[in-house]
Amino acid sequence: MKKKSVTAIIFVYVAIIVFTLAAVFIAGRSYTVYLHNPYDSDLITVEYSNEGIIKDTKIKHTHGYTNITFKCLTAGKTQVNITIKNNVPGHEGESTGVLYEFTVLPTGVIYVTGCDFGGYYFILLGIAFITVFSFYICFVQFKKRKKTQFFSYKTVLDCALIVFFGIQSLMYLGLFTCCVLYPHLFDGWRVYNLSGLIMMIIFALSIPFIVLFSVFISFSNVSLIRHEGLGKNNLFGFFISAVLFFGSVACVIATVRNPNSTVFEPSEIRTSIIRTVVSSAFVYFECLLLATQYCTQYCATHKPKYNQDFILILGCKIKKDGTPTPLLKGRIDRALEFYKSQLEKTGRQACFIPSGGKGSDEIISEAECMKNYLVEQGIDESIIFPETESTTTLENMRFSKRIADNHKKNANILFSTTNYHIFRSGINSAKAGFRADGIGAKTKWYFWPNAQMREFIGLLASEWKINAVFIVLTVVLSVLFGNIPAIINLVAG
User: Fold this and answer.
1) CA pair distance 283, 287, nearest whole angstrom
2) Contact by Cβ (8 Å): 182, 62
3) What tens digit of pLDDT does each residue of 147-163 get?
């Protein structure tokens, strides 16, 4: 992202925060109390323990409620006793009394015991604007990367943040709307609890799918190990599925054993903070997992343009007699299929770069094996440029790029591999310093889940700083919102 763009984005965030704080301080100089008054009685008395701190300026009756607006006069504390006496025939003499404790801060903001203060709703609106703007930025970034450099963990992260900020935007806009339409039902503490409860419900609704998904991953890994052998790369799925399964089960058990986790009482501050942090973190990681699934699947179905100069075929293990295995044959056949389609549709002839060195148990290099197969399929040797030194996918990309550059600068390069391997190969092409499209040959179903879990772990590791910042921010903001009374008292003290 360009420096000017970053500066503009920071400016917008700062502007939102400044305007939000200004709105909070302006609106916070008054506070409206909503009292249930089904008979719309006008016999209302307001008594202050300390005069001159606040004053009632407006009394209004709406839909069975009496709304009394108070404005600040000076910093200090006072108790306000509000009594409503009924004069409706048949209910004469009945009265209700409510006691409030008001604190006017030096800034003029009125705070009411019960974790509420004037201007609280504007905090919700400010958060909503921030999440909506973040959603927009991530959406624009994702579309840009999709066109210019799709093979990047940052692309997956942008995709995940689109979903996460989308959920957050809808939630905070919805809460703000509810607060405006039904102010008598919401105060600061209930709004905070409700936001955490909404995230908890979203996570709870996803638990059955997570459990089924984790079981499926384990099942596919069993098939993978049976066919491919036991190796550390084949165990990623077991690790992730165990975390998903036992994490989900633990959350369900914790909720069942602690029914207070769904209540709104201010006495349950600690429970509310834990609920908000845990549910938000789980939803965030679920968004990362969903984004990983989407990006890997998109790579497998993406159709590159017919403007390729070179088709790079990534090697893998060959048979003892020097012929390609079914897995490698699939990659070569997929490259041939694209080569013929491009030639037929555009008349443009691409060259081949079969890439892969010679293993200790192989009689020839993987590149030579692929070249022999291409020649057998009628491809002229003059357009085949084998790369025979590489031992890893990253070396495949680097060494093949050198070959391509020797024949044509800034050439369009397409790589052919197995469909589950496209995204990781694309990341390696980016590391090698060039942008390439990828095509994939079909393979056994049990390769997919393990490959996707590897990409998920790669995303967590590659973008660990951003992931850590999100979790820390979630914890800090939850603790701050959950301890508003202590913060207010500290400021007022």
Assistant:
1) 6
2) no
3) 888 888 899 999 999 99
Give the pairing type, strands 65-72 and 54-62.
Answer: antiparallel
Structure tokens at 334: 């997929």
DSSP string, 284-304: HHHHHHHHHHHHHHHHHH---
Q: How far is CA 31 from the centre of its chain?
A: 36
Round the CA-based radius of gyration of the chain to a whole number and report it.
Answer: 32
How do residues 57-69 score in pLDDT, each as one tens digit?
Answer: 888 887 788 889 9
The total number of residues shown for the chain amounts to: 493
- 198-210 pLDDT, tens digit per residue, is 887 888 888 888 8
Residue 215's CB is within 10 A of a number of other CB atoms, namely 13
Assigned token pair, 26: 């302006």
Give 366: exposed, middle or buried? Use CB within 10 Å, 0-12, 13-18, 19+.
buried
| Burial (Cβ within 10 Å: 0-12, 13-18, ≥19) of residue 119 | buried
DSSP assignment of 221-260, as one string?
Answer: HHHHHHHH---GGGGHHHHHHHHHHHHHHHHHHHHHH-GG
Q: Using 50, 70 and 90 to split pLDDT, how confident is the model at 369?
A: very high
Q: Looking at residue 300, what is its pLDDT? A: 85
pTM of the shown model? 0.84
* Span 264-301, pLDDT tens digits: 455 566 777 777 788 888 889 889 989 988 988 888 88
- Per-residue DSSP letter, 384: B
**Neighbouring residues of 201: CB distance < 8 A, sequence distance ≥ 6:** none
Residue 482's Cβ-count burial label (10 Å; 0-12, 13-18, 19+) is buried
Closest CA to 396 of 298, 341, 295, 328: 328
CA pair distance 166, 201, nearest whole angstrom? 16
Picking from 141, 194, 138, the residue whose alpha carbon sits closest to that of residue 163 is: 138
From the list 382, 384, 376, the residue with the least C-alpha distance to 400 is 384
CA distances from 322 to 1, 237, 373, 409, 441 (A): 47, 32, 10, 33, 21
> Alpha-carbon distance 108 to 92, whole Å?
39
Strand 437-441, strand 413-418: pairing: parallel
Provide the angle, in degrees to the nearest 10, between the axes of the packed helices 3-27 and 120-148.
170
Reduced to 3 states (helix: H, G, I; strand: E, B; else coil), residue 128 is helix
